[in-house]
Amino acid sequence: MRLTRRGGGVVVVAAAGFALAGLFGARAINAVVLPAAVAMAAAYLQLRTFPVPDLARDLPPDDFVGETATVELRFEGVSRPFAGRVTDELSEGLSGDAAGDVAVGGDPFVYEVTYERRGVHTLGPATVVGRDVFGLLERELRVPNTDELLAYPTVYRLGRAAQHELLGLRETERSEERDEFDRLREYDRGDALRNVNWKASAKRDELVVTEFAAAADVSAVTVAASASAEGADRMAEAAASVTLALLDVDVPVRLVLPTETVEVESGVTGRRRLLEACALTTAGSAADADADIVLRATGDGVTVAVDGLEHDFDGLRVGSGPRSRPIAEDGSRPDDHEEVAV
Amino acid sequence: MSESGPSDVQSAREAASRYVGLRDPALVGALLLTLSYVSVLYHVTDVVGGSRDFALAVGGAFLLATVLGRFLRLRTAVLVTAVLVAGGAAVYYFAVPESNRALFTTARVVDDTVALLTGLSVLRLAKAGVWALAMAPGPVFLSWYLALRGRYVGSVLVGGAALAFFVLTGDAGVLVTLVGVVGAAAAVGLGTLGEVGAVSAQWDTLAVVVAAMVLLSATLTVVPGGAAQPLLADRGAPTMQGNLVGSAASTDSVTVQGSIRLSPEVQFTMESEEGHYWGVAAYDRYTGSTSGGTWVRTGEAEPYDGRLGGPPGDAREVEQTVTARSRMNALPSAWRPVAVDDSVSSATEVTGQGYLRPTGTVRTNQSISVVSEVPEYTQRELREADGDDYPARVSEAYLQLPESTSERVRQRTAEVTADEETAYDKAVAIERYLESNKQYSLTVDKPDGDVADAFLFEMESGYCVYYASTMVVMLRTQGIPARFVTGYTSGQQVENGEYVVRGLDSHAWVQVYFPDVGWVNFDPTPSGPRESSENARVEEARQNGNPNVDVDGSEQTTTATTVAPDSPETNTTTTATTTTEADGNATNGTDSNAPRGPSDEIVGQEPGVGGNVTTADEGIGGSLPSIPWPPTREQVGIGLALLVGLVAGGRRFGAFTGTYRTLWLYRHGARTEPRADIERAYTRLEHLLSREYRDRRPGETPRSYLQSLGNVGLDDRAVEVGRLYERAHYGATVDRADADRAVRTVNELVWERTPLVGRLLRN
């Protein structure tokens, strides 16, 4: 328990009043000194009864670097809300104004965090400095609960040329499986327009869609990523960008990272798994013997090797800004229908 | 760490103070604080004059702050305040008369400020009314601006500093200070809670603390330097001497007290050829209030610098030698003192009213000689000395009355003096009126409002302070300059030329100014009863063996004869022209009936009438406290604080939840749907059973709960209610009759379990 500035001021005023009364006569100084003493005593009694509150954090979903999200702190176990200053500790890699005055036990304390770096970040422990009704004394209560957030690496949009190459991979894969006969069937709502067989549709009066029998058997593209110590972040960004671009065109991906290997198909879950893996990965080398795409990152840049050709990742990507678009609940993204003319 | 430091956040918050508008409850606290110190200044202007202008100035400052508060930034507001303060200081500077402006040196201003802060009342300042007008708008503007912007701590700092100033000068009484402190606490508390939205959660704590502040301040004293004036308790009556002479000689005001007692110890002996009223101090400014100084003397005391001038008319020299018998802070002498011993001349001051005062203390057995020039006059001279050509300094200082003086005092005085034409006759009429219409008593209840008004219209009895104050006020309403004088009556004459003066001889009387004559003594206190009570006190002290009641030669005389030869009638014997008008019966007063009016008879008063006199007890106790009606402001405040404290404390400590719960159990409330009624009835039943037996365990169905209770003797009726509840709760149809039955049954069960009533019902 310690004195605030206000409390110090009150003590000084009371002491001065006491001294002046002793020196020059009491006058009405009693009506100043005694209430000050009562206020201090009451402050002490109030602070003694403050409970250490339980903390529940409402976390935002994991999101990309550069995004800002809100965190809500709710205090429970406080039957009688009191005024206090809450400070939540943020680990490096998160920035935000995590301190504020709030009624502890009343409305939740809301603040914003910005993800600065990829990876796992910790929120907490929180410190609550409770004050009495007048703000004369304060008492620090430490609430040890911590929570974690994951920040995904920035994902860049790939340029046309790169997208061509990726599509090429898909086709390559698929052309080997071309033995199977492609069925034709009626157009169903929700079918991608690119699957429409225009020739066949022209012959009939309705739209028909080519259903690739072997669609389900499209084999995964393997992407292997390695990085030196300084290049881990770039590697993560490049890996995320490339693999997500593959998923965009419905190519299953097998991503080999120094820390782990993930195999995903297109869909929300798959995107999440990829992003998580990229967020958590560290520097190192990955086995890239039979990989279709090999990424190598150093402090200066990332090289992408496809079919024996090497490109600089910075040349592949479009623009300097990230394409961080939120992943909607149903897995769609705002520009899902961007087509690439083959 | 990437967290922002707390100081950054703090300064960002402070920079963004917003206009909260007029609906924030914390503004009430700020308003109370402002009103507390404004009321002190208003009282000053009421006493001295200019209260209407003052009210306008303060109102203007409030309005300005309200209007500008919306868009003015803090720095600009501080600038505006500085302009107001500087403007006020300039106004004051030019209002002070030319001669005094030279005194505005830095050193002098610092000295004066220090004097103010160590207990000098603001009323002593020259042109106090203008000073109040000049100083008020600045702090009012700034504190109200800050309060409107939600910066309550700042507002309380500004307002609190102003209030603290008046607390230190002694002008703020206990009630005013307490109101201001409560306002400050409310503002800070509500502001702190309001910032975080915890007002509804913690207002009861705040209310309890504030109520505790009020109640404890009214009953306890924790500061040294003598008891602060407690609001309620009258702990032992002060002595007459202490009230009039003791500390008043060194301070500059006399405050009217309630009941008072007489101290029998010998104070000094006086050697003088003639007996006079030995004056100590005179007071010019009347405030009328009974909680601060009632009479204040203005002006600075000058060091004694050689023989002073005497009265404007004829006068004779009287030499008197005072020998102190205990330490004294006063130098009693007959009016008008002109010279003092050379040995003590460097340690003597002359007050602005003309009396002498020692700068230090007169030691026991120290003797000091004072020469006075006593004015000589006849009644005719006094009658002729009528008219309005009083010197400016006299009419300025000695006609002052507070603006709030009631009209009825003026009217009553006009009635009393209706038949008289000259100032002298009017004075005598007033003197006689008070002597004959009021009774003498040392036990009185101190009045709340104006002393003169209360004594004239509400009180039946009082002592010399009341008589003298009222007479001065009545004279002033008729435009006759008069002043209030404290000192001693001549005391007990033990030999020719030697008087023994005791503490109980301390007295207050009146001096009236007559052009070309000077100040003339009048005494409206009936002397007979006064002397009786004084004699009784001396006798009692002698019998009790109190020390210092007598000196050599004073034991024999059992009656203290008081000589009051200064009154106009007795003075006329020394001049040749004795008026032969019907009233001219002059006696050289050595009898105890000092004649007062033109005729010998003192209407209504006879010497030795003991029935009119009550000696004060040493304390007040002995009778049961009765409920005072109508209650004083202080009592209302205390009662309110107590009530608020109890209610808030009850809520704070949960005293009411039990009550609420019990009420809930007994009352079913309005009938609504049958299903809802049955469910509520069952809930009440469950609560009742949980009090008597046990709670229903989580997961236990009502049926099995009631069954297991039935094994220990539960009423069948309760089981039936449970069955009804099942049907209602799990969807079967229930009708009104079922609901009514359930409610009735539960009501029966609840009442049967009430402690006393239940026993009756069960039989």
From TrEMBL, chain A:
It comes from the Archaea. Residues 184-258 form the DUF58 domain. InterPro entries: DUF58. Residues 326-342 have a biased composition (Basic and acidic residues). Residues 317-342 are annotated as: Disordered. It holds the Pfam family DUF58. PANTHER family: SLR1927 PROTEIN, SLR1927 PROTEIN-RELATED. This is DUF58 domain-containing protein. The lineage of its organism: Archaea, Methanobacteriati, Methanobacteriota, Stenosarchaea group, Halobacteria.
Automatic annotation (TrEMBL), chain B:
Residues 531-542 have a biased composition (Basic and acidic residues). The chain crosses the membrane at residues 21-42, 54-72, 77-95, 128-147, 152-168, 174-194, 206-227. Residues 569-590 have a biased composition (Low complexity). Keywords: Membrane, Transmembrane, Transmembrane helix. It comes from the Archaea. SMART domains: TGc. Residues 554-564 have a biased composition (Polar residues). Residues 456-526 form the Transglutaminase-like domain. Pfam families: DUF4129, Transglut_core. Coiled coil: none annotated. Residues 524-613 are annotated as: Disordered. PANTHER family: PROTEIN-GLUTAMINE GAMMA-GLUTAMYLTRANSFERASE (PTHR42736). This is DUF3488 and DUF4129 domain-containing transglutaminase family protein. It comes from Halobium salinum. The lineage of its organism: Archaea, Methanobacteriati, Methanobacteriota, Stenosarchaea group, Halobacteria.
